[in-house]
Design brief:
The chain is mainly α. The protein has one domain: Ribosomal protein S7/S5 (Ribosomal Protein S7, Orthogonal Bundle), CATH 1.10.455.10. The protein is built from 6 helices and 2 strands, in the order H-H-H-E-E-H-H-H. The chain has helices at 52-61, 81-99, 103-114, 138-159, 164-176, 183-198; strands spanning 118-125, 128-135. A two-stranded antiparallel sheet has the order 1-2. Strand 1 (118-125) and strand 2 (128-135) form a beta hairpin. The longest helix is centred in the C-terminal third of the chain and has 22 residues, at 138-159.
Length: 199
């Protein structure tokens, strides 16, 4: 009898995480339909126990929100798990067709490529605002990568008429290929450039 696979199609056991710093924070359990339904939040670092594709789903609920201004709303997505699952499944099918690889492997590599290693923090020293370069924690690196991938795909979808799964697949493939023309890679490079300047 074959084991459980993601969406009953892709085996997460085949996926390798190359960045050793992220291994603990990218969960690749084989779950047919990853929906933990909030069973982890009472634990510290609970997101590390949530399957990585489910974390993408959770991020797509609020893909448009940026900062406190909420210039782009994600109201279209809220409360529609089934719709978003179908979107992710179709996106992964497109990724598999275009790359001829396990789409979960492509997605994990896209996260590794989009996750910034350094960024700048600002704090007040006397009457002056000082900026300092800091190393980004692994959990935040994964969070930022997922946020930028979701926002990049969502913005493209709002500006065009094609199906959403096409834009999500394009965003993941471009991040996998380290293409600096997309939002997630551009944002990573900007954060690391600012950190280098603040050293």
């Amino acid at each position: 009898m074959e084991g459980v696979k993601l969406f009953d199609k892709w085996d997460c056991d085949e996926v390798e995480i190359e960045d050793p710093g992220l291994r603990r924070y990218i969960n690749l359990d084989n779950i047919m339909a990853p929906r933990s339904k909030g069973r982890h939040p009472d634990k510290q670092f609970y997101k590390a126990d949530v399957q990585i594709v489910e974390r993408l789903l959770n991020r797509l609920y609020v893909a448009g929100h940026r900062g406190n201004k909420h210039k782009i709303t994600s109201g279209h997505n809220v409360g529609k798990s089934e719709k978003l699952w179908t979107l992710i499944e179709k996106s992964f099918e497109i990724i598999e067709e275009e790359t001829e690889e396990n789409p979960v492997q492509v997605f994990v590599k896209a996260i590794e490529n989009s996750a910034p290693k350094e960024e700048v923090v600002s704090y007040q020293r006397g009457g002056v605002i000082a900026r300092e370069a800091v190393i980004v924690s692994p959990m935040r690196r994964v969070d930022l990568a997922l946020r930028m991938i979701a926002q990049g795909a969502y913005e493209k979808r709002l500006a065009a008429e094609d199906d959403a799964e096409k834009y999500l697949a394009e965003e993941i493939i471009a991040a996998y290929e380290n293409d600096s023309s997309i939002r997630s890679i551009r944002d990573k490079q900007r954060r690391e450039r600012e950190a280098e300047g603040a050293r």
